[in-house]
## 1
Amino acid sequence: MKTTSRRTFLKLAGAAATVAATTAASRASAAAEPSRRKFTIDLNCGMIGVKASLAEAIRWAKQYGFESVAPAVDGLAKLSDSALDELLGQLKSLGLVWGAAGRGFAIRDDDAQFAELLRDTAGWAKAAQRAGVTRAATWISSRHDSLTYLANFRLHVRRLRAIAKVLGDHGLRFGLEYIGPKTSWTAGRHPFIHSMAEMKELIAEINQSNVGFLLDSWHWYTAGETADDLLTLRNEDVVACHLNDAPAGVARDAQIDNRRELPCTTGVIDAKAFLLALVRIGYDGPICAEPFYQPLREMPAEKALETVAAAMRRAVALLD
């Protein structure tokens, strides 16, 4: 066997190191670059003040370029098997999917009231499962007038764990939304969860695999969070998302929850950073507009839909 000289060996070793370094850099670069978005642009008629039947919402979603539709489970529950099959056929034929179902869950200390809520939730979840809905979400109040943080935390863990089990038994993931504005969590005697970090603690304590986040760019902004905070999450941690903007000329701590703007209107909220982080973690669920914008609610339905669709297109264009 021919012996390799020291000079040749060093030359080969150097070349190998260069190749390895280049490959590693290439992989790191690829990891740093966002992949093609997987999330859907979702139409939630209720959040923009548009009254519509499920069939109308599906038709309008296709007409105005949305990719998913928020399911109104109470409406779905009233449909006969044949009517539901027809509706689901329409959804599929138009290339649309269901978004996330929204629902309020009253987290009260009264055991009898909560038992009634659980029974109602089981029926609601059964109707959602029957229609092929797989995502549900709710919001958590950021204050309480009588319960301290710890007492309220323990109550939410017990109640939300029970709700999560019922939803999980029917194939539903369960997203929880924290409320970020300082004007909200300081409005009661005892502040409660109002940040991503605190919600992580609640979700960990609930300890149910189907529980995750309902993220909202408004609450992310008012909580003073960044893209780095979003990047600590994984796709499986996020159930649903809301997108909006904030009024200009108002300090972050002075923002009021029900006074918002359409996405990409004022530029106060960094929609690009928010969406790019979601793309980077591979989020594959729905994103809908939740602007709480009164002029939108005063528009004719078609004009409101056109306005929201244009705002969402501007937002997605930030990823190009």
## 2
Amino acid sequence: MTNMKKRIAATLTVAILTTVLTVPAMATETPDKSVRVSSYKGSTLEVGERSGLIIGTSGTDYTVTSSDSDTVAVERVLTFWVAVAKAEGTAEVTASNSVGAFGTVIPILLI
């Protein structure tokens, strides 16, 4: 019985060591420095139209700005960001977070 226990222990030890030594080391991933930004209604809005913004991953606090707030304003509604078309023209909506990552939605064209 003792011989059997030793064989099982040795077999398990060899199996564990083989597995640990043959699995390649996993590289540490660097955080992505970009934020994904898009609009529910696409990149074309009519004056007066509103579109919810889809920004990166949930749970992160973002600052959202418009390159021309007279053309496209951005508003925070509860926990969501909304682009509001104010006048004809184009504007880029940019979202950034506290670690310096940012993203820009395709310029919103107003017709």
## 3
Amino acid sequence: MKIGVRAHDYGRMEIEKMAEKLHAEGYDAAQLALPKAFTEIRRYEDITPGQLERIRRAFEENKIEIPVFGCYMDLGNPDPVIRDHAVRTLKKCLSCCREIGAKMVGTETAYPHLNRQEKAQWYPYMLDSVKRVVEEAVRLDVKLAIEPVYWHPLENLEAVLDVMDKVGEPKHLRMIFDASNLLQFPDTTDQKAYWEDWLKYTGKYIEAMHIKDFYFDKNGGYCPTLLGEGVIQYESISGWLHEHRPDMYLLREEMNPEKAQEDIQFMRKL
């Protein structure tokens, strides 16, 4: 397995300094959301060919692979202006993806936390947006990876399988698996059975895993924590990885740079 991190958890840096920092920390890979990671880039619209070449060269020289070009967009928003902006931005990033040597462009399907009625309302808009972006991914022969989240339109296993079936492009439409974004009821969920079910049916689509941990405080607030100190039970996920995908990218999110080495060791044990 290849151990990586969401680069902007270290803050924003110059392109070359970020690559050098991640190499020094011992990572094999990084997820890059360019405006969040690099001081030279403010918006996706402002990315230049020169910046893309600097990123590709700096990360190659420091032996840091780029499995995910992060561009998280509000794909299901009922507002057509917002939705069209999301589609256009993702299409631009698909064209940039190859230039920096990234494996895929990654996105969630919404921004806000939605209730059940809103998720149902946003679902067809999300599906239409994904189809439009995947058309461009097919044209460019690059990959789009969608990340399910229980408070978004792409909320559960059934939704993922429905989208994969209706889009019908498994070569170009892939998935990022994030256990923390799928565990709505940690106190009552049989995680062994839950993760085995997810991995049985979606494992063939997974290109990368986000690794993080959390707990809910007494008011129900989400609290990130060190890996292994929260509610996520990684044993069955680890078993699946060893049996089926020992080459998987494991990308740490919500990482505390001061505790990075502890998390890296946890991921290596997975």
## 4
Amino acid sequence: MINFGIKDVIDIFIIAVMLFYIYKMMKSSGTLSLFYGVLIFFVLWVLASEIFDMRLTGSILDKFMGIGLIVLVVIFQDQIKRFLIDIGSHGRMKYFRKLFKHDGEPEARRKDIMAVVYSCMSMSKTKTGALIVFQRKVPLTTYEATGDLIDADINVRLIENIFFKNSPLHDGAMIIADNKIKSVGCILPVSHDMDIPKELGLRHRAALGMSQATDAVCVVVSEETGNISVAIEGKFKIKLSAPDLEHLLSEALSDSSI
């Protein structure tokens, strides 16, 4: 007779929640097919080792599981870091962090957001290409190191000068974190999704790739059309107006200091 109690229900619930979070993480990073492959391999391992007691097949799969876990940790270290940060950012931790926030932070954040909005609208009129990345919960130190560190205050004139067509830094990305322009001319991971519209160029692919690898918010000004787009959580919001961009950035950055 099979004993099925409350502990088994809790056990199943925990596994279901973990799989759901992993599924969401893989989907946003564009590696969903790999998630299905790992899941199928895991099911085969359980069937061979635990259900049918196939000793030879089970022992071979056991060896692969031991090595495979290490390989998966190396491949998905960024996603695992993001997963752990997301866990720590929810629930009581979110309210706990609010106790240490200064009253002036919302006003300072709005001022910085408006500086980015004004500069994007100005660059949109002149069709000046730009890629601006806002750090949220996941640190972007690795990507900052690929460019030139400047650690400057956020202002319209500086942003427009950096992305001016004759500037040596205009081709890379600008990373904003902790209410500062941390680095410019940065290299970002490029998304290889096949469903990206053909009219979107390399800046858009880099923005989407960054939003898949981290939780960053990436603003793009198209050099061809002047349209403003935002990549967030692996998805694009395109042809944004100034109010749309301001609202989106305010919502996305409300729980994180930029």
